[in-house]
Design goal:
globular; alpha/beta
Length: about 280
């Protein structure tokens, strides 16, 4: 068994089933020794209970999962639990307990922290949420992820947890921060124009094959900076899908020869108050 998903549905939760029991049952099975990918869905009332029992169980049972390389904590649909309602916890101990882990995906940012934020072999870190706190962003930028190839962060909006600004995002793109990074996603942001302008000519772009600035409030202002960048022109792929560019700007992109996804046009709302990132609540 290379992949397994564990979750507690509504009926199970009402009947007292605990996610810890499911994790222990999996750990006791013969398949645990070969498990490469584990997905944790709703741990039972994620809107009122955080993920700490999941983290504690996985850390305690780490020797039962010697082949685990990919972990997703919080894989829930909108119907199961809205992303802004998912209660997370400190996921840092997972990084320490599983030194061979190569991919970590987290959904939900309420109560989320990453301490310690350090891993020698992690190649992919994805955080999906409606608003990412500046303390988590700082943990990543100040941490050590020397093998990271893909960093995908949903930055979101202030109302759902984004309590920072451009100054909190900029340390993520400092030269030498992630020497092996080839995919950078700073997306779903209410300051997408500011990020686009800052990233457009940043040295880190030279090492990327993909820059993902999708799902946010990108307008002509940020798009212009990207369009003028010689670094951006060398990217293999630029994701600008879900945006607020004007028809005139979209035409310029189509004629630019740059491999960019400019689908999912949201209109060209000139008033910033009427621009919203794709994923918030």
């Amino acid at each position: 068994m290379s992949e397994c998903k564990l979750f507690v549905d509504y009926d199970q939760h009402e009947n007292g089933v605990q996610i810890v029991d499911l994790i222990e049952k999996l750990a006791d099975s013969p398949e645990s020794a070969q498990l490469e990918s584990l997905i944790i869905g709703d741990w039972g009332g994620a809107y009122e209970h955080d993920s700490s029992p999941v983290v504690e169980s996985l850390v305690r049972l780490k020797d039962r999962f010697p082949q685990l390389r990919r972990l997703f904590i919080g894989d829930m649909s909108y119907e199961e639990c809205e992303v802004s309602w998912i209660n997370q916890s400190n996921i840092g101990p997972i990084l320490t307990a599983y030194p061979e882990l190569t991919s970590l995906t987290i959904k939900g940012s309420t109560g989320l922290s990453l301490d310690p934020a350090s891993h020698e072999k992690l190649e992919e870190l994805v955080i999906i949420c409606g608003g990412l706190g500046k303390e988590v962003i700082a943990s990543i930028s100040e941490g050590s992820f020397k093998s990271l190839k893909k960093l995908e962060l949903y930055l979101g909006v202030e109302d759902y947890g984004f309590d920072g600004g451009l100054e909190d995002v900029l340390p993520l793109i400092e030269p030498g921060k992630f020497p092996k990074l080839t995919y950078l996603g700073l997306k779903d942001s209410e300051i997408q124009d500011e990020i686009a302008i800052a990233v457009a000519n940043a040295p880190i772009v030279d090492q990327l094959h993909t820059l993902d600035l999708s799902m946010g409030t990108l307008s002509d202002e940020g798009a212009e900076a990207l369009l003028q960048s010689e670094k951006v022109k060398k990217l293999e792929f630029l994701d600008l899908s879900y945006h607020y560019m004007s028809d005139k700007m979209m035409k310029r992109w189509q004629e630019s020869g740059i491999k960019a996804d400019i689908s999912d046009h949201q209109g060209d709302a000139e008033d910033e108050d009427y621009r919203y990132p794709s994923l918030t609540e």
